[in-house]
Design a protein that fits this description.
By secondary structure, this protein is mainly alpha-helical. It contains eleven helices and two strands; from the N terminus they run αββαααααααααα.
Length: 308
């Protein structure tokens, strides 16, 4: 009888292991191919030079040394305005989007009047596909605006207002996920701490700065690090707003890389960089952002407000 129970136990244990292996196989395969494989291949390509083979089939591959990095740095210097646009998007996120998201999250967390309505409106960009939402936005600031005001151009078509409209759209769209994360962090605050502070005469502003912000600070730090790490890859929703046609006069580096990578060949042309140059450019950004992100995380954790 005991031997039968042991066999049954081993059979169940083996079935659980097989089920676990099946469930994790696909995610692990995807990680290995789409992350490890792609990044390893990108690293290799950054040090390779490709030329069309004399036979007309395939490529002749040689070691490029730092040539791709030199050309990538030259390309980055020529497109310095894109760096300014990417940094502007980052600063708007940090000093406009995040503070506003914290304030609205606090309002929703305190369940003030119409907090449910604000929560729904702010979450709309996350509920609706970004492509659909951007199409509706373009219609509102374009056709609807010109029909109502008689203006010759919409906000996205007018060169004087295009970039400001893009920044506004980015702030609006980012509200949903930011408010969700910050309000969830605030929802974990111990109510007894808040009640004790209120008994001591703490007003709502003091509660926000001395209790709520310190409690939500780890989430703020995480969001900040993610934003810093994405400075050079953030498309700023330019593809959703302008598609393949491009608005390269207001393009971020992320939008530029996405556009160029989709059409780049292995061999450099007079007008387009090669995949090796783009890979080298990506490595340059990695070398800049990895130490920057680690240092910033350490500083924010050390110098930020403490719950204690």
């Amino acid at each position: 009888m005991a031997e039968k129970r042991n066999r049954l136990h081993h059979r169940r244990d083996r079935s659980k292991k097989i089920f676990f292996a099946i469930m994790v196989a696909l995610p692990l395969l995807q990680f290995a191919v789409m992350y490890v494989g792609v990044n390893a291949n990108s690293f290799i390509m950054a040090f390779q030079h490709y030329e069309n083979a004399a036979s007309g089939k395939g490529f002749d591959i040689t070691f490029a040394g730092i040539d791709n990095f030199q050309e990538a740095w030259t390309l980055l210097s020529e497109k310095s305005y894109m760096l300014e646009i990417s940094l502007t998007g980052f600063l708007v996120t940090m000093f406009i989007s995040y503070p506003l998201a914290l304030i609205f999250s606090f309002y929703i967390y305190k369940k003030y009047p119409f907090s449910g309505f604000f929560k729904t409106v702010l979450f709309l960009p996350q509920i609706i596909s970004s492509l659909i939402f951007s199409t509706l936005f373009k219609y509102m600031v374009g056709t609807v605006y010109t029909e109502l005001t008689g203006a010759a151009m919409g906000f996205l078509s007018d060169p004087d207002t295009t970039f400001g409209t893009v920044l506004f759209f980015n702030v609006w769209v980012s509200f949903g996920i930011n408010v969700l994360m910050f309000s969830n962090a605030m929802g974990n605050i111990d109510e007894s701490v808040v009640e004790s502070a209120q008994l001591d005469g703490v007003n709502i502003i003091q509660e926000f700065f001395h209790i709520t912000i310190p409690s939500a600070w780890p989430t703020v730090v995480s969001c900040t690090i993610i934003t810093v790490a994405g400075i050079f890859t953030n498309q700023m929703y330019l593809y959703d707003l302008f598609g393949d046609g491009g608005k390269f006069e207001i393009a971020s580096i992320g939008y530029f890389l996405y556009q160029k990578a989709s059409i780049a060949d292995m061999v450099k042309t007079p007008t387009e960089p090669s995949m090796g140059i783009l890979s080298a450019l990506g490595l340059i950004f990695t070398f800049i952002l990895v130490p920057t992100s680690m240092l910033l995380k350490k500083l924010l954790t050390k110098l930020g407000p403490s719950v204690d």
